[in-house]
What we know:
14 helices, two-stranded parallel sheet, mainly alpha, 2 domains
Amino acid sequence: MATKTNFDLVYSREVAAIAxxxxxxxxxxxxxxxxxxxxxxxxxxxxxxxADARFFFSRLEKSYLAAAKVYDTYFDQGxxxxxxxxxxxxxxxxxxxxxxxxxxxxxxxxxxTVWDFLTANSEHTSKKHFLLGAAAMLARMPLMRDVGARQxxxxxLQWALDNPENxxxxxxxxxxxxxxxxxxxxxxxxxxxLESISKTWKRPIREIVHDEQSQFKQMLHNWHEIYxxxxxxxxxxxxxxxxxxxxxxxxxxxxxxxxxSEDMSPGLQVVDVVLWLFKRSLTxxxxxxxxxxxxxxxxxxxxxxxxxxxxVGEDADEAVER
Length: 322
C-alpha cells in the first residue's frame, strides 16, 4: 500500500477505532475471520479512499519460481558451453524451454535437490546436489515428447554433469544465499511496484515500512540499500536481449527502509487484511459481499504482478503476437 502521507501517523486513531469495533486491539484478518472482516470492510474502504491509497499485488507461484531457478542454474549460456546464445538470452525461447522442462521433467524431488545446492553451507555439498540434480533430470528426459528440445536440453545437462566446476553453485555468505528465496523475489517485485507508483505520482519515496522478518531481515535491508542508492538514479538502464523495455536498477532512490510489527503499524494492519482477502480470492474461498467489494476497490487502485505459469505464458504469447 502506498500513500502520499505517513499513513501510520495520520490514520492510527481511525484504524484503532475500526479494530475496537470488532473487539480487537489490532487488525489481523486471519484471527478476525470472514464474519468480523465483513463488519469493518466498509470502514476500511472509506479510509482507503480518504487516504487515496494505491496498492501493488504480487503473486508468486513457487512451482514457476522453482522451474525458473533450475533453468537459470543449469542452462545459463555464460556457464554452460553446450547452450546456444538464443536458448538462454531470447526470452520467448527461454520461456518455452523452461515450460517444457517443467511439464515433462521436473518434479518436487528435483526442485528440492536444486534448492539444497543453492542454499548449501559448503562448496562440496553444493556441487554434490548440483550433480544429483543434473543426473535426475537426465534420467527423466526421455519423458519429453519434443525431440528437438529434448536433444538440446540433454546435451546441456550432460555437459553440466561433466563440467560442474564451470558453474557457480555456492554463495559463501548466508545473506547472499537468501537471495534465492521467494521472499527476495517478492521484495524485488515490491520495489518495482513502488517505483511505478512513485513515477505516476511524480513523487519520491520517502520511507518503506515492511513487516518484521527475523530470517530475512538483513537480506531485505541489504538489497534495499543497493536499489535505493542515490548514485544509481542517473545510471543508464540495462537493455536485455529480446526485451522491449529497458530495466532500471534504481528503485526508490534515497528512501528509508524500516521494519516493524503489524501491531505497531496501522498501515501494515490494513495490508494484512488486503493480502488475506487476496489469497482467499485466488483459491475461490468466501470473502463475504463487503469483503469482495473492498478487494475490488483495491484492485481498481492497484497494479498486479503475476509470476505464475499461466500469466507468464499469456504474456509471452502476447509479446510474440505483437
